[in-house]
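Supplementary Note 2. Why include the ligand at all?

Several targets in our set were suspected to adopt different conformations when bound, so apo predictions alone were not considered sufficient. For every target with a known small-molecule partner we therefore ran a joint prediction. The input for adenosine-5'-triphosphate is given below.
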Amino acid sequence: MNQHAGALAPEQRQAAATESVVRLVEVRRRFGSTAALDGVSLSVDKGEILGIIGRSGAGKSTLIRCLNGLERPDSGEVHIEGREISRLGEKQLQPLRRRIGMIFQHFNLLSAKTVEENVALPLKIEGVGRAERLRRAAELLDLVGLSDKAKAYPAALSGGQKQRVGIARALAARPALLLSDEATSALDPETTRSILTLLKDINRQLGLTIILITHEMEVVRSIADRVAVIDAGRIVEEGAVWQVFADPQSEVARSLLQGIRPQLPEEIAAKLSPTLGSEAVLRVDVAGEAALGPLLADLAATAGPFRFIHGGISRVQGRPVGTLFLGVASGEPDLSQTVQFLTGRGARVEVLGHVFGND
Ligand SMILES: Nc1ncnc2c1ncn2[C@@H]1O[C@H](COP(=O)(O)OP(=O)(O)OP(=O)(O)O)[C@@H](O)[C@H]1O
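The joint prediction is reproduced in token form.
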């Protein structure tokens, strides 16, 4: 891919880099009084991995169905590779659907067919000859690390292996876009990691554009470049994954992040008072180099003593993202000075409440 891009003039490179594989404009779809999609606008660039995350009932499935033409929006536009598809008939949709590969939570393999037959099925439907189908299936099974299972039946495979077959099948017709609909939700954490690693490898090797629909932030964190948070049919937040992790703006994103960001220990949370106490408890969210730098040493030197209550720094998209809970003297001007120092270093600071020292 890079070699190819290298042959282009700078302005062509720019155009190729920003080419949208998917573009939704103000898409609306109602079911009775429910607005399943309430004006969704989104675009996904070539080679990008976009995570779409939301709680149950947020509108994720309806969005997917609009993307592959199974659902028609009431209004708005759905562009796939530059072509508006929302008003096309079934016949015109067929070739466009082949540009989209799909993987599912429950794999959707045909149990009476072997692994290689499952993988080759989309090509059979396209009328590709048997020898070519099997050649391509072998190539894809090699890509997903399952060459030795070509003649096996799905029942003899583990969940992770079934999903690898699902991925190989989704890639058979060389799609421009891979839609992953909760593809790891039925898998254990270790298998989930291996499937996500495989998807990232495929994205890099083939330059494949991927949309991941999920309700798990961990999935988004592992491999997505960008995330869109959907709630009640609207995109309520969108941005680089590390930014949303570092400083979530919406209540939904904050709540979806709860399980994977450090939280204030229960016993301290239970003692917090809005006003009373000798020690203020701060939540400090930091991202980028500020999190790696000697933030706490500088804080002690500049603003005075503090107590490190809890927290941690992890890496998201290669950047440090941290959440720290600190206890500092409640009195003024100490508290204001501490908050000022931290915000001056680019941190987001929230005074959660007060406790009596060493509570
Ligand atoms: N065919 C339908 N008829 C009536 N209501 C529907 C239909 N499809 C979706 N809805 C409603 O639209 C809203 C969005 O549903 P959708 O299935 O898109 O959400 P979701 O985010 O995929 O949820 P989940 O994660 O539980 O699958 C929900 O309130 C749902 O009840």
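The longest strand covers residues 20-31. Residues 1-8, 12-17 have pLDDT under 50 and may be disordered. Comparable summaries for the other entries are listed in the accompanying table.
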